[in-house]
Design a protein that fits this description.
By secondary structure, the chain is of the alpha/beta class. It contains 8 helices and 9 strands. The chain has a single domain, classed as TIM Barrel (Alpha-Beta Barrel), CATH 3.20.20.
Length: 201
């Protein structure tokens, strides 16, 4: 199954990117994000794209500017995740042939993102919005748009977010923290996949 889980590898280094990404993919997660405030993020993205072409989708997070979008495209990235709803970034992302997942919190931001062409919505910070906030937004959002809960959503509460209307999740430190070795990352990824499949499988 194509799980709607984005693994957020904040702080990952190019020399470890391929090995750790392989563990995550083998566990069953095929959406991999390298935030741009990581060391040499475009080097990691390029290496991951080369290693896992056709197997996983590799993108960037914390994408804030049009220059970031252009640099990601040059690195063969496939999707953009942002913490904010920047309509120009969304449009540039789509024009470059990449998927767009902007950060939103309010109904106004959600619809601005949708009208600009977003492929999915990053509900951030999900811990502040809460499941009740998502449920209220879901009452007015198109059923065709995916909502990813990011920040405060994890394997211990996937079920609650599912009931509220979340389609997927962005998972950060629960899957990778700088310094984690391959075995640690694999164990975390396995636990996340098991919890997701129990709720969404």
């Amino acid at each position: 199954m194509a799980r709607k889980i984005i693994a957020i590898l904040r702080g990952i280094k190019p020399e470890e990117a391929v090995a750790l990404t392989r563990e995550i993919i083998d566990a069953g997660i095929t959406l991999i994000e390298v935030p741009l405030n990581s060391p040499q993020p475009f080097d990691s993205i390029s290496a991951m794209r080369h290693a896992f072409d056709g197997v996983a989708q590799i993108g960037a997070g914390t994408v804030l500017t049009l220059a970031d979008v252009a640099a990601l495209k040059a690195a063969n990235g496939q999707f953009v995740v942002s913490p904010d709803c920047n309509v120009e970034v969304i449009k540039a992302t789509k024009a470059a042939g990449m998927n767009s997942y902007p950060g939103v919190f309010t109904a106004t931001e959600c619809f601005a993102a949708i009208h600009a062409g977003a492929d999915g919505l990053k509900l951030f910070p999900a811990s502040v919005l809460g499941t009740s906030g998502l449920k209220a937004l879901r009452a007015v959002l198109p059923s065709t748009i995916d909502a990813y809960a990011v920040g405060g959503a994890g394997p211990d509460n996937f079920d609650q977010w599912h009931i509220a209307g979340a389609n997927g999740f962005g998972i950060g430190t629960a899957i990778y923290k700088p310094g984690d070795d391959a075995a640690t990352v694999r164990a975390k990824a396995d636990a996340i996949v098991a919890a997701y499949d129990k709720v969404y499988g």
